[in-house]
Amino acid sequence: MGGPRGRLISNSDRIKAVKLINDARENGARLKPACRELGISSRTYQRWTKNGGIKKDQRPLIKRKPPKNRLTKSEREKIIKVANSKEYADLPPSKIVPKLADKGKYIASESTFYRILAEEKLNTHRSKSKEPVKRKIPTHIATAPNQVWTWDITWLNAFIKGNFFKLYLIVDMFSRLIVAHEVWETENAEYSKRLIRKATLSQGIAAKKNKPLVLHSDNGSPMKAATFMATLEKLGVQSLFSRPRVSNDNPYSESLFKTMKYRPVYPSKGFKNLTEAREWTSKFVHWYNHEHLHSGINFITPYQRHYGLDINIMKKRIETYKKAKAAHPERWSGKIRDWSLPEYVTLNPMDEDKVEKYLNQQSS
């Protein structure tokens, strides 16, 4: 150690420390207690006074080799260039890295991207939204597509202040795929019936008495209308409602609406008419299903997850990372990034033991 807690001490301070210890020893003090009072060890004192004089500390003068896992200047510049490119400029590193992996490219880890961008002051928050709040409410579970759907109605601003269009939307909880949507000027049970028929037809859903499709929603009047409930019964769909006075019991639909309304291209000033609202929503649904890398499903698109394309995509990402690790093993302190996919999805977080118990009950 160079001094107290390993700090490097100047040569003048060393001379003062040695003089104080020598004076203490001349007055009968022992070496170890005297050194301890100054926060150094007796071995440090002996090293300083070796050969009868004060030995100057050479450690600050030693040229140290750069760490083997340090990025080269060109690699660092490539990270900055890619992050600022037109294709990736509006994406965080958590989405840039998977997109590169899908192309068979690996530049650096996600954490390295974040670190480099932070050092360059380029890692700004790219959303108008606040950080999401984690929820802790036990509820339904899906282990495959078309087991649990959630749906809701949100209002879209019209160009005329005080007017709104109504977006009806159903999302698959397991894959996050938007399976059906409609935009109307009012909330009506007839539109709800049309929406669920459209969704079941597009997914080829047949009535199952032993394990019916679950449709979760809040307690709005279009969701609980008698005609709509009768339609669900005919289709063999089981209705499931949010608990009274629980505002966050439908998180997947709420999260999707939030994603939509915080998109940079969302027309915050409002839609001019119903046709414009429908056209914009259709474009958003296509982007969300086919282009959006969803963080909840390890950065693949809902379409890829829903139709089983995710397995080969993850295999390719794993191969890309293994090749990158083989090329520069010194840059990897452990295993490659975890590209596994969740085996189940819960409507709200549940403890693993409760999930296991629930799944066992469902299979029996």
From TrEMBL:
Top-rank lineage group of the source organism: Bacteria
GO biological process: DNA integration
Annotated ranges, domain Integrase catalytic: 141-310
Gene3D superfamilies found in the cross-reference section: Ribonuclease H-like superfamily/Ribonuclease H (3.30.420.10)
InterPro entries noted in UniProt: Homeodomain-like_sf, Integrase_cat-core, RNaseH-like_sf, RNaseH_sf, Transpos_IS3, Transposase_IS3/IS150/IS904
Record organism: Selenihalanaerobacter shriftii
MF terms in GO: nucleic acid binding
Name used for this protein in its record: Transposase InsO and inactivated derivatives
Pfam families according to UniProt: HTH_32, rve
